[in-house]
Amino acid sequence: MDELVDILDTEGNLTGQSLLKSEAHRLGLYHSTVHVWCYDEKGFVLLQQRGKNKINFPLMWDISVAGHVSAGETLEVAAIREVREEIGIAIVEDQLKKIGVFKTEHLHAKDFLDREFNYTFLCHLSRYTPLQKQDSEVEALEWFPLERFKQWVEKKHPDLVPNLNQRYEKVITEIESRL
Hints:
Elements: E1 4-8, E2 14-20, H1 21-27, E3 30-39, E4 44-50, E5 61-62, E6 65-68, H2 75-87, E7 96-109, E8 112-124, E9 138-145, H3 146-154, H4 167-178
Parallel strand pairs: 3-8
Antiparallel strand pairs: 1-2, 1-3, 3-6, 4-5, 4-9, 7-8
């Protein structure tokens, strides 16, 4: 889905310009995304296998929930919306714990330079909460033991979306500190 996103400068500040997401990618302009990592009290982390029709990293394992922040939308509202859309559950703002911001840049194609500020949150969930994946975006959802995820990160597992800016290590450390 193409949506309006707010354009950011290289420091992550709003420029006052909004463009369609596709245009931001085509022009290589910075914009905001939210990343929500779901975990449980037993040390499991929810990973999403990206949809087979995704332009970037199809069928690779990644963040529990991720998505673009629409123009004028707060980070928290975007995170709550994306959780509802991608895994089918309703959460509230108090469940989100912001753990960092990662500036990423990835050239996917000649006309697709993805420059983002990834606002990253943790969300504690029960592993037994019924999930409903968004078929157009998500191929599969799986609760991974944190140790297995750590091994995948350490070995740069080929089925895992590339780890930009050591974001996976930060997520692992933050989850471990809460167990």
